[in-house]
Specification:
single chain, 363 residues, alpha+beta, TolA/TonB C-terminal domain, elongated, disordered N terminus, TonB_C
Length: 363
């Protein structure tokens, strides 16, 4: 009974480069100010033994209002397979979610450990830090400007990022030719959107000079290609210093762990046919926090069908690489209406969340 509901979405996530700073915001109260929220992981332990990851991907930062004290840490449990990949990711407590906490599990899913024996009963706690954009680390502001998941940075942040620059709005110079790297020729990291921020000056003739990488995720090939692209970019006018331009490589899809046969989870006493059909097809929506990282997953869910077609009693039998795919599968089925006249109990579906075949490139 291989019934699949594939969720197909484009892996390419194109965001515009950082905009020119807007008008001054004026005087605002602390609770009206924007702050940057970051989540920092603590030690990782598996059955009491400390484990050092090869890559511990940081959750994407978010923007919040005000500067309220951070809540309690949020702890996740997970396992590690023999290839070094994390799976079976789930929250262990019922703490309040907090700004940006939905980015934690996808970041943990994109993390990697050394291949070997594999581990079970692993855990890590993430602690939130909420700082005003006037005091947050420049590196964190830069990273957020590339992945602005909660709206653009306010003026105060751009003032800090462009401190000492005479190149706040390069559009006034007139762009003669913007050169881009051949993104598809560059390596992509599964589950991670690599980026390079290039700094440069523009001489009086519109030629870029002093080109260098000033920040990024450490993708050396992307850094080199980005520097070359900026070095070949030309303007009609110049005479400015401290320009910045970002390039990024969209993530390579991170395939889902192998899925079992859903028949192994068929409820006892099931009266559901192999294919009951749909009068309203399920609304196949990929969870945004996983879509932007191109992380694939699946869930096996059981449910009943009322005689009028309503889906009820939806239960998640198993989902991977995290419990979030099970929650999303429940939402997918709730949007549907089955084709039936008598109703059924013990139905089962495998919902697969799959990125498109073309992972896109970058910007």
């Amino acid at each position: 009974m291989e019934k699949l509901l594939p969720v197909m979405l484009l892996a390419e996530v194109l965001l515009t480069p950082p905009p020119a700073p807007g008008v001054a915001e004026g005087s605002v109260s602390p609770r009206q100010q924007r702050s940057l929220v970051t989540w920092t992981p603590g030690e990782i332990r598996c059955r009491g033994t400390r484990l050092v990851p090869q890559l511990l991907e940081r959750p994407l930062a978010s923007l919040a209002w005000g500067n309220d004290p951070s809540g309690a840490p949020i702890t996740y449990a997970f396992d590690i397979d023999s290839s070094g990949r994390t799976f079976n990711i789930r929250r262990t407590g019922k703490e309040s979610r907090g700004y940006g906490s939905g980015e934690i599990a996808p970041a943990l899913a994109a993390s990697r450990f050394a291949a070997g024996q594999g581990y079970t009963d692993c855990s890590v706690a993430y602690t939130a830090s909420q700082q005003s954009v006037e005091t947050a680390p420049i590196g964190d502001l830069t990273a957020y400007s590339i992945n602005a998941i909660a709206g653009p940075l306010p003026r105060g942040a751009w003032d800090r990022l462009y401190a000492g620059s005479t190149c706040r709005d390069e559009r006034a110079l007139g762009l003669k030719a913007r050169v881009f790297p051949d993104f598809k020729a560059l390596p992509a990291t599964p589950g991670v959107r690599d980026w390079s921020l290039i700094g440069y000056d523009i001489d009086e003739t519109g030629v870029t000079t002093n080109v260098r990488t000033i920040d990024g995720t450490g993708n050396a090939a992307l850094d080199r290609a980005s520097e070359k692209a900026v070095a070949e970019t030309r303007y009609y006018k110049g005479g400015v210093q401290g320009c910045r331009y970002p390039y990024w490589r969209t993530p390579a899809p991170l395939p889902a762990p192998p899925a079992p046969d859903e028949k192994d989870f068929l409820p006892a006493g099931s009266t559901c046919p192999d294919d009951h059909g749909w009068t309203v097809r399920p609304n196949l929506v990929f969870a945004e926090t996983y879509r932007r990282r191109a992380i694939e997953g699946w869930a096996i869910v059981t449910y009943d069908v009322a005689p009028w077609g309503e889906i009820a009693n939806i239960q998640v039998a198993v989902s991977q690489p995290s419990e979030d795919f099970g929650k999303q599968a429940v939402a997918v089925l709730r949007s549907a209406k089955a084709e039936t006249r008598q109703g059924h109990v013990g139905c089962i579906e495998k919902v697969k969340f799959v990125m498109s075949a073309d992972p896109g490139s970058g910007e």
